[in-house]
Structures are given as structure tokens and as C-alpha cells.
Amino acid sequence: MKKYCINCGKAIDNKHNSHNLKEEHSFDYCSSCNTSNSYEDLDKIEDHEFNQKVHNNIIKANDMKNNSLCFIVGGFILLIIGIFFFVLSFKRNVIGIRVFSPMCFEFFIAIIALALSAVGLIYGFIRFLSAYNKKKYFKTLLRKIK
To answer: What is the rounded distance in angstroms from the CA atom of residue 129 to the CA atom of residue 121?
Structure first.
């Protein structure tokens, strides 16, 4: 499982964390904000602050998950609009047969909507998985502390 810093929320890289620290605690060091994430040997006030930081990171992960779900819903709406305009790009010719016309305005709208839909869906799913992993990590960290 990927580890995250409780102060800044960024991923902790295990390869580059041997900055003048003991080897057994080197995995708890964040190179982004230069703080230790160790929850061992904390007094009551530090333990309370640590719990607050973990809970704040869980709230941030929830917000990130909600944001990603907005991108996913928007992507699905644009997908439906793109399909609708793609169907509208089939025009009737002189004989009355439906023929695909790639130079019509509806086709360009369909391409733009489908492209934005793909971007929104991909970004939303990646962000959702990232938020899910962060929330899962901080919840297991909170369980370990208690």
C-alpha cells in the first residue's frame, strides 16, 4: 500500500527517505514537507494533533472523491450529448436515404462532446481511484493508532 504524508497529503517515496534518520524510521519521513510521520511515542497533545491531521486528510479524500464523481457525471452527460449529435449528423439525401455527412455542424459538435467526455471520464476515474486509496490508507492508519 502506498504511504501518504499526514501533513501535506503527498505520497511518501520509500527510496529517497534516508535523510539523516535512523533506518527503522526512514519510511515515516516526508521529503516534500520535511516532517516525520511517526505516530510512536507521542504524548497526549501530539496524539490529538496527529488524529486531527489524519481526520482532515480523510475529509480531503472525501472532497476529492466527490469532485471526481462530478467529473464522471459530467463525462457521462457529454457522452450522451455526443452520441445524440452523432446520430443527428446522418442527413437525408435527395432520395430520402440517411447518409453520413462528416462536414455538417452536428458532427463537429459530436466530436467535441465525445472528446470532452473521454477526458472527463478518464480524469474522474483516475482521481476517484487516487482518492479511494488515500482514504483507505488514512482509515487504516487511524485504526492502527487506536
So the answer is: 12
Task: Give the residue numbers spanning the domain of 124.
Answer: 54-145
Model pLDDT, residue 97: 87
Closest CA to 113 of 71, 81, 140, 143: 81
Is residue 83 included in any domain, yes or no? yes
Can you tell me which residue has the cell 467535441?
Answer: 112
Report which residue type is found at 44: K
104 near 34, Cβ under 8 Å? no
Distance CA 146, CA 142 (A): 7
More confident residue, 101 or 12: 101
Read off the pLDDT of residues 42-62 as tens digits, 9 standing for 90 and up.
777 777 888 888 899 999 999
